[in-house]
Structure formats: C-alpha cells, structure tokens
Amino acid sequence: MSLYQTEHQLTQDAIGVSRQVILKGARLVKLFVTVGAHARYPKKSDWNLHRLECGVLSKLDKDRQKSLTPSIRLMVKLYLRRKLQSEKLIPITVTDNYNLVGALVSRILAYINPFKLACNAHTICDSELRPLGTGLYPIISIINHSCFPNSVLVFEGRVAVICAVQRIPKGTEVLISYIETAGSTTTRQKALREQYFFSCACPRCIKEGNSDDIQESAILEGYRCKDGGCNGFLLRDSGDKGFICQQCGIVRDREEIKKLVGEINLLSEKASKLVSSGFNTEAGATYKMIEKLQLKLCHSFSINLMRTRETLLKIFMELRDWKEALAYCRSTIPVYERVYPVFHPLLGLQYYTFGKLEWLLGDTADACKSLTKAVDILRIIHGTNTPFMKELLIKLEEAQAEASYKLSSMN
Ligand SMILES: C[S@@+](CC[C@H](N)C(=O)[O-])C[C@H]1O[C@@H](n2cnc3c(N)ncnc32)[C@H](O)[C@@H]1O
C-alpha cells in the first residue's frame, strides 16, 4: 500500500461517529466524520481492559490465535470495552457513540463474523500513508468501491475524511477504492473477490477482455520484446510456444521466460530475507540484480519492476545514499503517472519525495517543480491547513526562495 509501510500494528482504535458535515466546493466535496478517539482512562481501567482482552484471546485455540488480524483484535477490544463500561468499571467517554455504530457493531461484534469485520474495518494511516492502527467507521463503511473512484479516504489524526478527487455531480454516488488500483483488471478483480467477496463492475472493470484492457494488462504485468529497441507488448501465441510482440512480431520463447522468472523468484526470496535481517547493503545489491533481470523480462511500465525500484528507493534512503535514491525515485514516476489517477495520494507523495531528494542534492530549480506538483495533488486531498500540508508548503516556499537567490547570484 504505502511506499514506507511498516509492519501493521494495532496501536490505536477508533469508534463511533459524532458528526457528519458535507462541504461542497467547486471541485471539492468533503464528508467529515468525527471519530470517537479513545479518551485515556486511568491506569486501573486500562489494566482491567487489557487483562480481560488477554484472558479472552488466550482461550482461543492456536489456529484461531494465528488468524487474529488487527481488525478482529479491535472488535474484541470494543466488545470488552462496552462490557466494562456497562458494568461501570471504566468511564464512558463522550465520543463512544455505540448508538451510531449500532447495527454494524452488533452484526460483527465478538468475532461472530470476521469476514464482515475485515470488510468494514479501516486502516488508519498518517498523511504519508504509514499505518497507525485500525478503526471502525460506520459512515465510511457505507461507501462502495470503484477502481476509478471519485473520492479518497484519508485521516487527519483519527478523523476519517472523504475527499473528492473528481467533480461529483449532485446525486452521484460517492465511491472510494478498497484496494491498490495499480494493477490489471484481472488482478484487481481477484483482490476484490478474495478480500471483499464481490465482482466489480466499475467503468474500468467492465472493459475486462476488450482489446485496450488486454493491451494494458500486457504492459503492466506482461513481458517486454526481445528486441531491446522495440517498445511493443507481448501476447501469448495461439500454439502456446511463447509470446509474440504485437509491434514487431518477434516471438519470445516460453522456456526462456520461465528461466528468468525462476531466477527472479529465487533472488526475491533472498532479498526479502536480507531486508528483514537488516542487511540493507546486501539487500540493495540483490534488488539491483532483480532489477537487471526484470529489465530483460518485463515491459518498461511493469508494475513488478516499479515495486523493485520502490524497494530500492526505500533501501537507499535508509542507507542515506541520496543519489541512488533520487535515481530510483525518478524511475518510478512515469509508471506512477500511468497507473494512478491525477489526484492520487501516492503520486503526490512520490513527487514530494522526489522534490526533497532533488533539493538535497542541490537541484533546487527541479525541486521547485516537483514540490509544486506534490502541492497541486496533495492540496486537493488534504486541503492546506493540516500540519502535513503546512510543512510541505513551507518547504516549497524555502526551495523557491533558494532557487531565486541562486538565479540572482548567477546573474
Ligand atoms: C464496506 S461495505 C460497503 C457498504 C455496503 N454496500 C452496504 O450496503 O453495507 C463493503 C461491501 O459492499 C459491497 N460492495 C462495495 N462496493 C461494491 C461494488 N462496487 N460492487 C458490488 N458490491 C460492492 C461488497 O459486498 C463489499 O463487501
């Protein structure tokens, strides 16, 4: 999901809804849902809740314990919290609005229907899309999915904000995306069926199987032409011997592709072990080998290649090798622009990272351009008043001041 995603942890819960305001601007419609943040209760009641939670969870058999996702833990916590509140062992806070959570909670409380819960719980992220916890947002939970959504869900602290990223005519349904939308129609449909149990019929998905959709899938998830100078996409030949370039007609042998895929898989296993053991330098070298093989195998707009480069960006940022990080960040931008809509948080954040790296390496003029792009995208999503946006706007102003100073001293 996020470029800098850390391990998913249940560090916060959020329940209840106290207010719903719809603001309509020329391009912006925001549905603000104020969410009941957990008030800090005294240590003793904290302990009461924790003791009960541990007691309940330890009674589950091992298999069930293994399947305890953050969403299920959240439900257990909510259930016990409600119980302790009804027994007056912990205080009810003004934001614990169980009436509004009502039907949703009663249907899925107490681990009765974990699938329904997973469909309705939301991962709370910060403005840089790093996950902070899991929350139950009843109003947000009535919003349906589209792979071409007119809105995005972001969080301001624990407040869930639905922000329009397209003009939404009156009476039109507000839609968000439940999944990572960068992917072929087949991949997106598979994710939606497996995680949310439905087939999507959005404007992107209804094109599944038509020639444009087949071409886009082959570019994003298929192979490159054997001729390095040709940018064609490949489709399986009817005899199933290999894949034919749709531009120049050269056939790529199935066995050769299989061999490359095997080598990449082996290296990927090794690389992810190196990352999890903290051997970043070795991991960087291994991911570079993967990138080299993927450049032979995949189309230049390949999502797999993009993911490898995202990982390399992250590794080189951690190694503080800004030059390498900048190069990898740059290489991801054309693919981001292809796979994400204009006002997508990930695209905005990638421009933000790009601008910061350019600035750090002294390319102030280009940094201004990248930071301006980041602002243009992210202000639609976050407005201009959040701490995150204020920081970005200050950075842009400083970069612009530095660029004009540099220009005037050159003159
Ligand atoms: C978070 S709920 C959304 C609200 C739900 N429609 C309701 O009435 O409660 C998620 C569920 O809604 C349904 N859903 C959401 N988007 C859909 C879509 N585009 N097409 C079909 N079903 C959808 C799926 O059953 C999914 O598991």
Describe the model.
This protein has 411 residues and is an alpha+beta fold. It folds into three domains: 13-178, Beta-clip-like, CATH 2.170.270; 223-331, Serine Threonine Protein Phosphatase 5, Tetratricopeptide repeat; 340-411, Tetratricopeptide repeat domain (Serine Threonine Protein Phosphatase 5, Tetratricopeptide repeat, Alpha Horseshoe), CATH 1.25.40.10. The chain is 52% helix and 14% strand. It contains 14 helices and eleven strands. The protein has a six-stranded mixed β-sheet. A three-stranded antiparallel β-sheet has the order 9-10-11. α1 (43-58) crosses α3, α9 (280-297) runs antiparallel to α10 (303-318) and α13 packs antiparallel against α14. It starts with 12 loop residues before the first strand and ends with a helix. Residues 1-42 have low confidence and may be disordered. S-adenosylmethionine binds at residues 119-120, 141-142, 144-146, 196-198, 200.
Entry summary:
The chain has 411 residues and is of the alpha+beta class.
